[in-house]
Design a protein that fits this description.
This protein is mainly alpha-helical and 208 residues long. It is 73% helix and 0% strand.
């Protein structure tokens, strides 16, 4: 009886270590027909090479333009901040709001550069669809019902990578500007809050 029970228990694959291993091997076993041949990657290497050749210069150019534009915004903000006599809250709204607006325009201009490249490569049929797709890709929105030509589809992913770099620069710039404006307002606040000395009028009495 004991031998029969031990034999029955050992025959259950789900209750033994060997059974668990066999089941995992069965689950992870992939039919050969579903495997992707390595030669297919070689067939796409030439097409993907063209995508990289176009995308890498665009990434470098847009990042340089973005950094240069943010530098100009920063110089203008410094001049306004040091020469301003307005209230601190007004200065904060003016500088941060203006910097945000100009940075958004920079992102839009850089998306248009990618759209021009798509139209030059005939990856999209018209200018409107090229701009819409470029804005969708650079912001990682990804819900526009547009698809690039098959040989240029890697450029869409690379533009999304470019967008991550640009938005990272913008986020760091706005964070630094907010800290700068707050620090400047905190330094000027005690000076502005000091009461003015009362004006003393001297009255001369004339005696005859």
């Amino acid at each position: 009886m004991g031998r029969d029970s031990s034999t029955a228990i050992s025959s259950l694959p789900s209750l033994t270590v060997r059974g668990v291993i066999q089941r995992c091997e069965a689950d992870w076993r992939v039919p050969y027909a579903n495997l992707v041949p390595l030669g297919s990657f070689d067939a796409h290497s030439g097409v993907w090479g063209a995508d990289w050749a176009w995308a890498l210069p665009l990434i470098v150019v847009t990042v340089v333009i973005h950094v240069f534009g943010l530098g100009l915004i920063n110089q203008t903000a410094n001049r306004i901040l040091h020469g301003s006599v307005c209230r601190p809250h007004a200065v904060f709204v003016m500088l941060v709001g203006g910097a945000t607006l100009l940075a958004t325009c920079l992102h839009g201009f850089e998306a248009i550069l990618w759209a021009i490249a798509y139209r030059h490569l005939n990856a999209l049929p018209d200018n409107d669809s090229a701009v819409l797709y470029s804005l969708s890709a650079i912001t990682s929105y990804g819900h526009a019902d547009l698809v690039l030509e098959s040989r240029w589809q890697l450029m869409g992913a690379l533009e999304a990578l470019n967008g991550w770099l640009l938005f990272g620069l913008t986020t760091a710039f706005l964070f630094a500007m907010i800290n700068k404006v707050w620090s400047a307002n905190n330094k000027l606040e005690p000076v502005r809050s000091q009461p003015k000395a009362p004006t003393v009028f001297h009255v001369r009495k004339h005696f005859r």
